Amino acid sequence: MIKRQERLVITFYTTTAAMTMERLCKESGADGRIIPVPGSISADCGLAWCAKNESEDALLALMVQHSITPQGIYHCLV
Amino acid sequence: MIYFDNAATTMQKPACVVQAVTQAMCSLGNSGRGVHGGALSASRIIYDTRAALAELFGAESPERIAFTANSTQALNTAIKGLLKPGDHVITTALEHNSVLRPLYELENHGVELTILPADARGNIRYEDFEKEIRPDTKAIVTTHGSNLTGNLLDIQKIGSIARQHGLIYIVDASQTAGVFDIDVQQMHIDILCFTGHKGLLGPQGTGGIYVREGVALRPLLSGGSGVQTYLRSHPPQMPTALEAGTLNGHGIAGLGAAVRYLQKTGLPAIRAKEQELMWAFYTQVREIPGITVYGDFSSRNRCAIVSLNIRDYDSGAVSDALSAEYGIATRPGAHCAPLMHKALGTVEQGAVRFSFSHYNTIEEIEIAVSALRELSQEE
Q1: Chain A partners within 8 Å of B33 (Cβ)
Q2: Residue B4 belongs to a domain
Q3: In terms of DSSP bridges, do strands B88-92 and B137-143 run parallel, antiparallel, or are they unpaired?
Q4: In this complex, do A35 and B35 lie within 8 Å of one another by their Cβ atoms?
Q5: Contact B34 A22 (CB under 8 A)
Q6: Consecutive sets of 10 residues in chain B, 379 residues long: mean pLDDT of each?
Q7: At what angle do helices B15-27 and B37-57 cross, to 10 degrees?
Q8: pLDDT at position B32, please?
Q9: pLDDT tens digits for B126-142?
Q10: Domains in chain A, ordered, with CATH?
Q11: Residues with Cβ < 8 Å from B25, sequence gap 6 or more?
Q12: Quick check: B108 contacting A, CB < 8 Å?
């Protein structure tokens, strides 16, 4: 059985944007990791950034600071 | 073999490039296709290379760099993706067929083309750009350096002219990327096309295109993207917009290693070594009776290319003799630069092109000069 928890999920228009997010989070020690875009969000393929809900403010600030445009920001079971 | 055909491709690559390709071929999945370790390794290596190229060329961000198979694909993407029937475009006689043929093709579909002429030393007149700009002019396309003469164009100057007139400036950096400093923002370059296997010292089958933010190109190809699967059209966001299908992850891994090697070694050091060899060669061969050297050598800052002929000998026969009798690799013929050969008056004879790498040595130069002395002696 797959364990599921509610998480913050950020999706991107391109793989490159997801990689930018991963690089920035790694460099700044921010929370999260790359996951496949959950089916509950979209049937599209692609990479998403998954983190704890409480990391949302810090992650969104980081994205604004570095001009990363999200495709969507969700809270869902993953 | 003494390899003096580096303008065609640099044969000797840094060891780190070979290692990076080998390692990639043992470990990479498909970038953006899945989230397992192999796929993520590919995505990360491709991102790292993108970021390194963005830094090398002064791009706003890694997203502005899309990968292509070579300069030809990049130039076709730029030219065909930008120009529409009724647009006017200006280019030069210095151009390679990878610029000229897409433009000729579009000319058949209503694009109007002006080609600035070159003189017998392979120079254009910069004031001609201003003279030829019209209300319907959309873009200027030029090379950064002639693949035949090694003459450089002042892309900063042309970029400024283009920007003043609101034109898109497309630069073909096939002969200069990795050797000469290119800063797309400072030089007002809107689109930069480059190949990975020449001065950038990467594998063949790699290359790319920088597109300034705010410039939209119709993609040459559409198809798999790994994202936005249910969209009927190819995603419009860069770099995905110009990267349909699986990328050459293995080659791009090698290209990334090559760019890091270049940044560590320093472009000024590489350029200085190439130019030192080129000048040592040029100053000796120009004194050999019967040899004609083409191009403008009035500026020390030029590509490490020397094209020449011996008397009225066929360039192919000279190149073959250099290869067969002396083990020296050069490129004869027309070099895919038909208008440049017309300007130089070498359509029939072609020319023998010597092009140098920082891996070449002064001893190799001396051997080539000696070989040319022997070949140029009259019977």
Answers
A1: 45
A2: no
A3: parallel
A4: yes
A5: no
A6: 98 98 97 91 97 98 98 98 98 98 98 98 97 98 98 98 98 98 98 98 98 96 92 95 97 98 98 98 98 97 98 96 98 96 96 98 98 91
A7: 150
A8: 86
A9: 999 999 999 999 999 99
A10: 6-77 (3.30.70)
A11: B250
A12: no
In the predicted model, residues of chain A with pLDDT beneath 50 are none
pLDDT for the residue B377: 93
Is A13 in contact with B227 (Cβ distance < 8 A)? yes
Residue B214 covered by a domain = yes
* Closest-CA residue of chain A to B228: A44
Strand locations in B173-271 (E): 191-195, 207-211
Q: Exposed, middle or buried, A75 (CB in 10 Å: 0-12/13-18/19+)? A: exposed
Q: Note down the domain range covering B354.
A: 267-376
Distance from CA of A69 to the nearest CA of B (A): 11
CA end-to-end span of chain B, whole Å? 27
Q: What is the pLDDT of residue A1?
A: 78
Best of A11, A13, A16 to disrupt the B interface (most B CBs within 10 Å) is: A16
User: And the tokens for B264?
Assistant: 């560590």
Same domain, yes or no: B232 and B271: no
What are the C-alpha distances in Å from B78 to residues B13, B90, B283? 28, 14, 39
Q: Does the beta-carbon distance from A13 to B235 stay under 8 Å?
A: yes
Residue B45: closest CA among chain A residues belongs to which residue? A19
Of B230, B265, B300, the one marking the end of a domain is B265
| Residue B240 contacts A where some CB pair is shorter than 8 Å | yes
- Cβ B191 vs Cβ B215: under 8 Å: yes
**Chain A contact present for B29, CB below 8 A:** no
Contact status of A65 with chain B (Cβ, < 8 Å): no
Q: Do the Cβ atoms of A20 and B33 come within 8 Å?
A: no
